[in-house]
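Researcher: Please predict.
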Amino acid sequence: MSAYAALAAAGYRAQIRDKSTLFFTFAFPLLFLVVFGLIFRGQDVEESGLSYLSYTAAGVLSWGVANAAVFGIAFTLMQWRNDDILRLIRMSPAPLSAVIGSRYVLALAVGAVQSLLFVGVAMLPVFGLRPASGWPLLIPVLFLGVTTFLLLGVIIGSFADTPESVAAVANFLMLPMAFLSGSFFPLDSMPSWLQHVSVVLPLRYLNDAVSHAIAGRGGLSDVWVGCAGLVVFALVFGAVAVKTFRWTRSS
């Protein structure tokens, strides 16, 4: 527990000292909300009759939380490995679970702050989001979302050895996934083939579950399907992460 607490405290201090990371973690998703919210203000999606905001608010929130989880752990593991911090941790009594667990707690905290800030801004009169009655479901949904994408970040951080490679791989995965999963534009208005492609992407399940939780889109079954999909991806990513994790560049 002492190793876990020390790693969590070190991660927290590093997080709040990095102003650029704080900006892109919290302000970047809000910029997307403002842009899309103003562009599609007052417009509805013909296929469902729901407002564009009910889609984009949920989608951008999902993408922002997932993005923060992936980049946060990937950059940390890469940097700690290059600085030999992981090697020193390996030589100590601290287990791997303390390394990942400490970052996991930070990722959950970041996700919680992101969600509160994002929903608060979306509820301003200029955007007018009204959370659905099932909004408490957002808590377990985002918990699973952070878990799934943090494990994806562990995989990326285990392979990439430079900041440039972490950014390249993470963006290569997360940006196309955002468009293909309906984070920026409603899947209901996209071609049917694209909707079928999206079912193999973890962000699609997070989007659908968050959309029902905060906007009331779909039914309660969408939340359970979304959670089940995230659990499956978390198990797969977790198994791969255990196999590919590297304490040093060579092992």
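Model: The mean pLDDT is 82.
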